[in-house]
Design a protein that fits this description.
The chain has a single domain (9-196), classed as Beta-clip-like, CATH 2.170.270.10. β5 and β6 form a beta hairpin. The chain is globular and about 40 Å long. By secondary structure, it is α+β, with helices and mostly antiparallel strands. It has helices spanning 9-12, 49-55, 135-140, 167-174, 193-196; strands at residues 15-19, 25-29, 38-42, 45-47, 68-70, 76-78, 91-92, 98-103, 106-111, 122-123. The chain has five helices and ten strands; from the N terminus they run αββββαββββββααα.
Amino acid sequence: MPLASASSPRRRSFYVIRKSAIQGKGAFATRFIPAGTRVAEYTGEIISAEEAGERYDDAAMSRHHTFLFELDDGRCIDAGPKGSGDAKFINHSCEPNCEAIGEDDRVFIDALTDLEAGDELLYDYRYVIEGPIDAETKALYACRCGAKTCRGSILAPTKPKKPNKKKASRAKAKTKTKAKASTKTKAKKKTKEKAATRR
């Protein structure tokens, strides 16, 4: 079933944008939304990772704030420019009720759980950055979701270290991979995964 356009009354009826206790503006269900419903498309200008880095320089920010979403091929959707859709206002939560689904050059937001009218739509940004994660980095990417299981940041959860008894296992454990935002788990990378922290 094709998704309605950003201005479609059908799609707009799923949620309304208003002030959020979590961060800036948020998207709130206007009616019951069953789990599995496609509620939004994350739209904007498709740009290169290099352009995204120039537009949103984390090192120059006192607070992380971008509207980027990384695609599987490394390009990003920048929802910051005027005319972009309002899915950029869907906030992060460590206990999400929605998830981001990548399909080619598009990213959709689907309901993970049944949502009641008034519920805030939330997905886990799982923002991925390169390099070590220290206290300063965690503070830059702080989470304000208030969930019981809040990780304290919008960064992708770190995998718990397992005891490695073999050298081969240790070498494998040290290998890093980049999570892509447009995959079903919606991991956000340094450039896009910024996207979600857009406020």
